[in-house]
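Your task:
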Amino acid sequence: MRRVHLYISGMVQGVCFRAETCDEAQKLGVKGWVRNLPDGKVESVAEGEDDAIEEFVKYCHKGPPGAYVRNVEISEEVFKGEFEDFNIRHGY
């Protein structure tokens, strides 16, 4: 099991990035959350099987149609198993 903390930059707000990322995570069985940040980035914490996390990270590098991902900062964290599902967080 694996946990990653991502900061995604580029044109990633206003292009359904959070909604599409949430859908992708649910398809992959990944748990965690995604949210917009005031600086224009998208932040996500994701936990799951190694292969599912790898696919999730790949998705975050491209995003949905209309998005332009310039950079993805990835931090590996200690797996906690604290999430029941994957959701969109609102606010900062």
